[in-house]
Amino acid sequence: MDEQQLIAGCKSKNRLAQRELYEKYARRMLAVCLRYVNDMETARDLLQDGFVRVFMNIHSYTGTGSFEGWLRKIFVNGALEYLRKSDVLRESTDLDSSADLVQSDSSAIEHLSAAELMKLIQELPVGFRTVFNMFAIEGYSHKEISEALGITESTSRSQFTRARQLLQKRIKELYK
Fold first, then answer.
1. From CA 95, how far away is CA 2, in angstroms rounded?
2. End-to-end C-alpha distance for the chain, whole angstroms
3. 82 plus 45 within the same structural domain
4. pTM for this structure?
5. Measured between alpha carbons, how far is residue 140 from residues 48, 133, 137, 148 in Å?
6. Does 77 share its domain with 134?
7. Are residues 75 and 95 located together in one domain of the fold?
8. What is the three-state SS of the chain?
9. Is residue 14 domain-shared with residue 77, that is, in the same domain?
10. 127-171 confidence digits (pLDDT tens)
11. Of the residues 76, 99, 102, 103, which has the maximum number of CB atoms within 10 A of its CB?
12. How far apart are CA 71 and CA 50, in angstroms?
């Protein structure tokens, strides 16, 4: 089935279409979940919950925009909801109260594969990782991030800057 047929099948609650849609997108959506929670068991739970939401709300997909983008938003929102409920984002600090931030050379990043970079992102503290994923990978603005996470825009900027600097430091350490 092509994507439009899968969507139509899922809208009519066809189990075969639902299974095929799951098999087509599960690996990519699991990767999205893992970027936020860094724990395979929790990521699998989020994946399952996400697909339940997809199948319950697929009728709201209007066909405008990318279907995969629509799916991704459901999984990102599910991961963010989990992080808010777990209260792991409480440790965020405002830029005004942070130490001076220094810029570092990022030329070492050329030596990394995408898998190595994703592994380094997963090692970031949860607040840094969440903001980094939302801003650098998902394309949210700092205003959208602040609203989604219940933090200030300056805290979002601070978390992103710190995440980027920590990644640069780790990359330099790996490739000295």
1. 47
2. 49
3. yes
4. 0.77
5. 24, 9, 8, 10
6. no
7. no
8. CCHHHHHHHHHCCCHHHHHHHHHHHHHHHHHHHHHHHCCHHHHHHHHHHHHHHHHHHHHHCCCCCCHHHHHHHHHHHHHHHHHHHHCHHHHCCCHHHCCCCCCCCCHHHHHCCHHHHHHHHHCCCHHHHHHHHHHHHCCCCHHHHHHHHCCCHHHHHHHHHHHHHHHHHHHHHHCC
9. yes
10. 899 999 999 999 999 999 999 888 899 999 999 999 999 998 988
11. 76
12. 9
What token pair was written down for 6? 């899968």
Tokens 């929102």, residue? 77
Residues (pLDDT < 50) of the chain are 92-106
Give the CATH number for residue 169. 1.10.10.10
For 25, the token pair is 């997108």
Place of tokens 């990022």: 106
Same domain, 82 and 107: no
Place of tokens 């503290």: 125
Same domain, 55 and 127: no
Q: Provide the residue range defining the domain that includes 31.
A: 3-86
Measured between alpha carbons, how far is 91 from 88 in angstroms, rounded to an integer?
A: 7
